[in-house]
Write the structure tokens for this entry.
Amino acid sequence: MPQSAEKILDHAPLFREPEYQDLFKRKREAFECPASSSDVEVQRQYAKGWEYREKNLAREALVVNPAKACQPLGAVFAAAGFEKTLSFVHGSQGCVAYYRSHLSRHFKEPASAVSSSMTEDAAVFGGLNNMVDGLANAYSLYAPKMIAVSTTCMAEVIGDDLHAFIETAKTKGSVPMEFDVPFAHTPAFVGSHVDGYDNMIKGILEHFWKGKERQPNASINIIPGFDGFCVGNNRELKRLLDLMGVSYTLIQDAADQYDTPSDGEFRMFSGGTTLEQAAKALDAKATLSLQKYCTPKTLEYCAVQGQDTVAFHYPLGVAGTDELLFKISELTGAAIPDAITLERGRLVDAMADSQSWLHGKKYAVYGDPDFVYGMSRFLMETGGEPIHCLATNGTKQWQEEMQALLASSPFGRDGKVWAGKDLWHMRSLLFTEPVDFLIGNSYGKYLERDTGTPLIRFAFPIFDRHHHHRFPLWGYQGGLRVLTTLLDKIFDKLDQETNAPSKTDYSFDLTR
Ligand code: SF4
């Protein structure tokens, strides 16, 4: 064998060893009904053209490489933003392994969540016993302060009633009667992780607010939304709010949960909105959502309680940050201090410094609806042109908002919006209408290799690069970081394309 205890090979070189190559060859011949290489190549070339693009875009019954995840993943992320809260997903175990794996591979941190481990018998007779035993085990083994329950497809298909199940489990003594067990039904076969986030936040607020009388105060609530950059973004947001001296509650803050230090102590739980804060948030004057499409039901619920509600689209770039800070200032009466105004000026200065390199660059952007909106807006601020704007979980309303955004700038003139499309659609778009850069998550790697479009990773999940999430995208400082990343890619590409000695290696920004 190519490796032994003395010589452990990493998976990249390991699978290039002759034994594995031979195994792959035999597998292909025996199981994969291979077409000839020339037939594959003919098909590959055809799939790059306009005719295939039209067929591809007309596709209805199949999704290939979607830029979204299922509802419970969003619910598990949402629950991680509350103090000592354990996610309990009622359904099958493999699904929960997928959420944990996704979150921990992205954040490079342990991501705790338990499952009620439903199997065939529970699928036939219902999962009540799994809930009763599971809650008891989770409570006694992990000592959480709150258990947030969501569901996988399996529990939803058979119609398990979470409210009734949790009440029954409490009467059977799984957890104390007064123990906090908010829940959200998160059917994975509709919507996406942003809906799961919304359902879980609403479930938690309902749990704490139901039947309570609101005593309005001057504070504001801020809901960040599902965000793979929450570690950097939430901390940056809090820094700005503290500079303004605003009284606020961040509802759902997973920054510390997904960024625990290595100091010899394992922290299963860290940071998060305290349960007391979540309960008191009912009294706030207003609730602001930083991602409109992550919170429609939650904001509606807040409005019914009598709060003002405002929704933003991922506060990135100059206008995105302006809009958020001006609104906070208006709602709270807090002035925007000079320190923040200076940061704004520095971002504008940096954008102007690099204008000649940024102007006219063409981009394809995909990800969650608010991210695509915020990123496209910033790209246009830099003089860039968002040509393909795609959100698999984008709605018709999002499509219309995006079209209005693109129409508001000359840089959006050639932009098109693709709601409900996947990354195989994006492949056709990139081959038929090429752009300079692709902005999205790690799954864009295949597109980068296939189409030759350099990928810039700004969206969840990012597996194949490390620690990006520790630095903010939001605010003026975040804008500076996004700007720098764009420019690095622009210059890297320029260097690669001008690497022929005495032919193309001229005109660099190098002086002596
Ligand atoms: S889509 Fe359904 S089966 Fe698949 S991971 Fe999500 S909950 Fe599980």
Observations:
- DSSP finds 22 helices and twelve strands in the chain.
- Residues 70, 72, 95, 98, 152-153, 188 surround iron/sulfur cluster (CB under 6 Å).
